[in-house]
Design a protein that fits this description.
Shape: globular
Radius of gyration: 20 Å
Strand content: 15-25%
Distance between the termini: 20 Å
Number of helices: 13
Number of strands: 15
Length: about 350
């Protein structure tokens, strides 16, 4: 089969690799019908995730069709159309029993495209299939479902829920890329009074306003705007959705006393924590890896028309155009890309 293989820092190739096979009785082999690229994949290519070994197939988000299952798989059947979650869960360890699947001790967590071969391929082996695959309703398209593999549950759990967004809050999201826009969509479920999106790119600010943001502003103007909207207090919740030091430090400057900063971005270098300013403000700062425990809820909301993700995919490709898709996604400032979607031309999506 063909797959996108990591060749070391700044090196990737779409090349022939062996087909995956069932290695564990709880595995499933899934034909990839639709797949996307994550900002984390770009972090890997920059060398920010040194655990990823040369030769690894990248990717942790996909929709596909189950071709084969191991002897211990009970809830997933051959032929079903499924969402491949970015997080795998053994279902038995302490953290899985607490719903903290991202910290799985039994061989799960973020493994696809990280410590085992991932989804940017024609076929993928999914461990712990019963806990790591979600059967898709017929009325949910593969493209929409792709948004629930990672960015929607990540933004919802690590941003909105961890940040404790509540009705009437002023919410600021720093970063109007895919994660930031997903945070906007899921924050709206809690009826905040206003959501402010912060991004240096005018095109992304425009996308944020079109997606329902109340305000969109460049980083250098964010503090003045938030102060004017809150009587100088600051935002109730600030979500960091970029993963660079300046964006995190801006978040801590925008939050009000007793407010929350929810860091979602993947950081590849240290950021300064200004405790000399924050210690007296009773600010809560949270970080985390998505657990995907809310994926069934988000899938139901999507199926019932309560959640709109239609604006997130801006570019579409065939699966064999993976290299072109990476070029477009990695140059989002020039291309205007948010999420890219790649489809297997031999399947109906």
């Amino acid at each position: 089969m063909k797959a996108l293989v990591y060749g070391g820092v700044d090196h990737r190739s779409w090349t022939d690799v062996p087909d995956p096979s069932v290695k564990d009785p709880e595995d499933a082999i899934v034909r990839v019908d639709a797949v996307t690229i994550c900002g984390t994949d770009l972090h890997i290519l920059k060398g920010d995730v040194p655990e990823v070994e040369t030769g690894r197939i990248l990717g942790h988000e996909a929709v596909g069709t189950v071709l084969q299952i191991g002897s211990h798989v009970r809830d997933i059947q051959v032929g079903q159309r499924v969402l491949v979650s970015c997080i795998s869960a053994c279902g038995r360890c302490r953290y899985c029993k607490e719903g903290r699947h991202g910290q799985c001790l039994g061989g799960g967590g973020w493994v696809l495209g990280h410590t085992i071969d991932g989804t940017q391929a024609e076929l993928v082996r999914v461990p712990f299939a019963d806990h790591s695959l979600h059967v898709l309703p017929e009325n949910v398209s593969s493209e929409d479902a792709l948004m629930l593999a990672d960015i929607l549950p990540t933004s919802y759990e690590v941003g909105v829920l961890a940040g404790r967004v509540s009705p009437g809050d002023t919410v600021v999201v720093v970063g109007a890329g895919p994660i930031g826009l997903a945070a906007l969509a899921t924050a709206r479920l809690f009826t905040p009074s206003q959501v402010v999106m912060v991004d240096p790119a005018a095109s992304r600010r425009e996308s944020a306003l079109a997606a329902g943001a109340d305000h969109a502003v460049a980083p250098e103007d964010a503090e003045a705007l938030v102060a004017s909207l809150t009587g100088g207090a600051g935002a109730d919740v600030v979500v960091e959705a970029v993963g660079v030091p300046s964006s995190f430090e801006l978040c801590t400057a925008l939050v009000r006393p007793c407010g929350h900063v929810a860091n979602v971005g993947v950081h590849g270098e240290p950021a300064t924590l200004h405790l000399e300013q924050l210690w007296i403000k009773d600010v809560t700062i949270t970080t985390g890896l998505v657990d995907t425990r809310t994926t069934p809820l988000l899938l139901r909301l999507l199926s019932e028309g309560k959640l709109d993700v239609s604006s997130l995919v801006t570019h579409r490709f065939g699966l064999d155009e993976m290299q072109d898709a990476y070029d477009v996604f990695s140059q989002a400032g020039e291309t205007g890309a948010l999420k890219v979607a790649l489809f297997n031309p031999d399947t109906v999506v």
